[in-house]
Design brief:
- The chain has about 140 residues and is an alpha+beta fold.
- It has 4 helices and 6 strands; from the N terminus they run ββββαβαβαα.
- The strands form 2 sheets. It has a 3-stranded antiparallel β-sheet with strand order 1-2-3, with helices on one face.
Length: about 140
């Protein structure tokens, strides 16, 4: 998926130079004992969409995406701390960035509006009539 230290491959035609991606090791939060307190295994990834080498159409689609990982300034921020190894977290952060961009690249399927079938319409009206009759039977009867 990624070639070490050169580029993050998104698709056959698109790749992002690693130099455009800022990867910072940070200390992981949560349980883990003494190891957590002295080793920076978590990774903080920052990727500036606007100044990247991505095609303009992908930049626009990414910026329009409603995703909490994308700031108002157009910076993707991903934090990974699942693995105990810094290298595994680095790989996972790059994979998440790649998946985010691939989600934008993939063309969205058009929704095909459907109509309810004749039997479904008939069943719905029959149910409504039955409910109406049941409610009518609950009313007071005046003589």
């Amino acid at each position: 998926m990624t070639s070490p230290e050169t580029a993050l491959v998104i698709s056959t035609r698109i790749s992002i130079p690693i130099a455009e991606i800022e990867l910072t090791p940070i200390r992981a939060s949560g349980p883990g004992g003494q190891h957590v307190n002295k080793v920076s295994t978590a990774i903080h990834l920052r990727f500036d969409i606007r100044s990247s080498s991505l095609p303009d159409s992908y930049k626009e689609q990414l910026l329009a995406l409603s995703d909490q990982r994308i700031s108002k300034e157009g910076i993707v921020i991903i934090k990974t701390q699942q693995a105990r190894s810094q290298e595994q977290n680095r790989t996972q952060a790059l994979m998440r960035l790649s998946e985010l961009i691939q989600r934008v690249i993939k063309p969205q399927k058009k929704r095909v509006p459907t109509k309810p079938s004749r039997s479904a319409r008939r069943k719905r009206t029959d149910d409504k009539k039955r409910r109406g009759r049941d409610k009518a039977l609950r009313r007071n009867v005046y003589e």
